[in-house]
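hiii so um. not sure if this is the right channel but i have a protein structure encoded as tokens and i wanna go backwards to a sequence. like what aa goes where. can anyone help
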């Protein structure tokens, strides 16, 4: 095949702008932002490939069987050395397998000449790679492909020109060859290219077919409303036999028929059975009538090429500022996305530093929270649940009060059964309205509201929200008020279990009275400990999501520390059980001097109240100067039955002991179970995820937690490439 000679002088205007566009294209910027380009569209066999051949010198197959089955992008670029690169860009919907198969293809040629020689063989291979069905008799494969064949021709004499050849539009499917789906596929491919307003549409119209029937002009009009980027190219003028037909074509070129803003051009390409003569000899016909009358600027491939160069140059000029802006925006988006991925975690060291940094942040927040240094981090403003110190102080107070009010099974005699000292006010039965919680808990609130919020955040916790704590925390949170009639009960107890001792009760009676009186202690103290555990657990979860926003990483991290965290909660509840057993299962005894004092006081109070009653009786009977005789004082204790006397002693001893033990127990639960096991000790659940823990991780475990999934790695690599490309692009566009 002889070389098709093409007009190759520097026909293009603004070559520096076009060069820039090409440099951008080279850096794959076209994938991210549309770049000015030419696309050849038209019906099947309208002469698109032949036109491209005239424009670029590449001999496209013109065989009807081998009509264009995929988009071909031809880029010509000026370069000091001559070379041709051929690659396939996989279509957007390709499978990974297909993708790697077509991407593995790389064809090359030493020069345009070399390419021309190899071209049929290259196309064979490309078609095979894409899986194109080569002939109507062949089985398998597809008729059309969304893959793009990319041919890049570089050389010192090449123009900066990128043209895309797309399959021709057709309307009727052919039995056994093309389907309705193919029609749609091709149409979509075409519109994909012409939709973009940086695309110049070369609408190819064969002269031997009525131009009114050319759907492509309607399609182009649809996407290029103002007609600013549609150029009509009339082909096959040599196939118009009659003079009247030629005349019609001429008037179209003169833009007198179906008008286009950019007008029409007429070119003659090589016919199927025509020899290899150059364009000059073919275009001789334009010197004859009626073509002679046409403006030379509208006739022939040379004039067309000049016009295309101008158009591209104008478009480049017009689009550059916008392109610069687009690229700038895209760059900052990509950088943001990259920053969102955090630092790279490829190596062991990178992973350790990364995780260690997260652990450090976690511990810092924990420390600040325990010390109530809430100004330390804005996170505290956003969530009340992070304020551990405040929540725990409130919870502890609440526990202490509830214990005092409700923990005894029966009210002691000297107690006022409606202790309203602490009664938590007015709002006790009001339901806490969650909506009422302020977004910013630091905003000043009426004291009652603050109390409600604290109450909601500490008492109204739902164990169902902590399924992981199942089996660790209590399932009972409420207790009844104490019962009355303690003296009846004590008397009964004594009568039922007394031995033969003289006027005294046994240790056994005392012990069983004690056990019953303290029988609600486990419930209340377990409820308190459980609430404290839920608050700590919620703190850990919330804080982890702050220091580690990546949810996959967070989940893995949690699954690694979970066991140990739960173990430490169990230690706390275990310690509570220990304290309970110490208090309740060992016979009541104390060294506390307070015990004797209160018991004696109770005894004295009893005598005093008896005397007081006698005095009041005397006063009522005998007027102002009533007196109580020694005899009366003596009888105040002597007249009691033995049972009553012992019962009173038992009550007073129990009451005094209860008082001492309750204070001791409440304090112990707070300091030893909560403070030491849950909050401040070095073995609390809050101290599982530490830098030391990270340092102690084995390489494999570390990689399992902090290593990146292959998709993240790929994403990171893609972003890095994209950012590099866009930065380059910015540089190219800046001068
Ligand atoms: P495509 O399907 O639009 O790419 O059309 P082709 O470029 O493959 O052309 C279809 C047929 O028309 C081929 O046989 C070409 O040789 C022929 N052809 C294209 N342009 C001309 C032309 O200007 N004159 C003549 N006589 N034949 C042409
Ligand atoms: Mg074609």
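sure thing!! here u go:
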């Amino acid at each position: 095949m002889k070389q098709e000679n093409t007009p190759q002088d520097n026909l293009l205007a603004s070559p520096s702008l076009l060069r820039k566009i090409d440099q951008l294209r080279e850096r794959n910027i076209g994938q991210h932002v549309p770049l000015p380009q030419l696309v050849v569209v038209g019906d099947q066999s309208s002469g698109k490939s032949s036109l491209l051949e005239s424009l670029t010198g590449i001999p496209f197959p013109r065989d009807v069987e081998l009509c264009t089955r995929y988009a071909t992008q031809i880029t010509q670029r000026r370069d000091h050395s001559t070379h041709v690169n051929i690659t396939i860009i996989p279509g957007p919907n390709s499978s990974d397998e297909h993708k790697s198969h077509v991407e593995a293809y790389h064809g090359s040629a030493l020069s345009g000449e070399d390419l021309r020689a190899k071209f049929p063989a290259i196309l064979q291979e490309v078609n095979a790679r894409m899986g194109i069905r080569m002939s109507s008799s062949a089985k398998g494969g597809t008729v059309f492909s969304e893959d793009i064949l990319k041919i890049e021709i570089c050389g010192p004499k090449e123009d900066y020109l990128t043209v895309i050849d797309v399959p021709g539009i057709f309307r009727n499917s052919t039995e056994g060859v093309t389907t309705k789906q193919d029609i749609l596929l091709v149409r979509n491919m075409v519109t994909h290219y012409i939709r973009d307003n940086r695309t110049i549409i070369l609408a190819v119209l064969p002269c031997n077919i009525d131009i009114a029937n050319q759907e492509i002009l309607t399609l182009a009009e649809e996407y290029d409303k103002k007609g600013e980027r549609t150029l009509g190219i009339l082909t096959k003028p040599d196939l118009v036999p009659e003079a009247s037909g030629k005349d019609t074509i001429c008037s179209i070129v003169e833009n007198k028929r179906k008008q286009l803003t950019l007008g029409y051009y007429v070119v003659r390409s090589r016919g199927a059975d025509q020899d290899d003569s150059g364009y000059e000899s073919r275009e001789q016909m334009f010197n004859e009538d009626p073509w002679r009358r046409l403006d030379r600027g509208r006739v022939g491939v040379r004039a067309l090429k000049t016009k295309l160069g101008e158009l591209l140059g104008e478009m480049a000029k017009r689009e550059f500022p916008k392109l610069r802006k687009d690229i700038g925006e895209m760059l900052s988006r990509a950088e943001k996305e990259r920053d969102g991925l955090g630092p790279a975690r490829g190596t062991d060291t990178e992973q350790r530093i990364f995780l260690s940094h997260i652990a450090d942040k976690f511990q810092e927040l924990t420390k600040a929270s325990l010390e109530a240094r809430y100004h330390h981090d804005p996170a505290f403003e956003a969530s009340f649940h992070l304020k551990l110190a405040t929540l725990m102080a409130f919870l502890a107070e609440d526990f202490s009060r509830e214990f005092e009010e409700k923990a005894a099974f029966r009210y002691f005699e000297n107690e006022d059964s409606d202790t309203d000292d602490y009664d938590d006010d007015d709002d006790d039965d009001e339901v806490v309205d969650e909506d009422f919680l302020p977004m910013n808990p630091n905003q000043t609130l009426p004291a009652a509201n603050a109390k409600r919020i604290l109450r909601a955040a500490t008492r109204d916790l739902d164990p169902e929200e902590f399924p992981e704590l199942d089996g660790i925390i209590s399932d009972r949170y409420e207790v009844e008020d104490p019962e009355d009639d303690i003296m009846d009960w004590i008397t009964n107890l004594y009568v039922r279990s007394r031995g033969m001792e003289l006027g005294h009760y046994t240790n056994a009676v005392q012990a069983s009275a004690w056990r019953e009186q303290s029988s609600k202690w486990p419930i209340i103290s377990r409820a308190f400990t459980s609430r404290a555990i839920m608050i700590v657990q919620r703190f850990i979860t919330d804080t982890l999501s702050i220091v580690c926003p990546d949810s996959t990483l967070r989940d893995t991290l949690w699954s690694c520390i979970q066991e140990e965290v739960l173990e430490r909660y169990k230690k706390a509840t275990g310690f509570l059980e220990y304290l309970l057993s110490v208090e309740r299962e060992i016979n009541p005894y104390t060294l506390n001097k307070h015990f004797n004092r209160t018991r004696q006081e109770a005894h004295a109070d009893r005598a005093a109240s008896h005397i007081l009653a006698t005095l009041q009786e005397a006063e009522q009977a005998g007027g102002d100067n009533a007196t109580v005789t020694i005899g009366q004082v003596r009888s105040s204790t002597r007249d009691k039955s033995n049972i009553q006397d012992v019962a009173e002693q038992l009550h007073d001893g129990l009451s005094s002991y209860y008082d001492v033990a309750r204070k001791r127990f409440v304090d112990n639960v707070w300091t030893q179970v909560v403070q030491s096991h849950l909050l401040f000790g070095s073995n609390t659940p809050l101290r599982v995820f530490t830098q030391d823990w990270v340092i102690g991780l084995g390489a494999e475990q570390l990689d399992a937690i902090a290593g990146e999934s292959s998709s993240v790695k790929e994403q990171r690599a893609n972003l890095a490439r994209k950012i590099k490309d866009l930065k380059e692009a910015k540089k190219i566009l800046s001068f």
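oh and Confidence is low (pLDDT under 50) at residues 7-11, 417-441.
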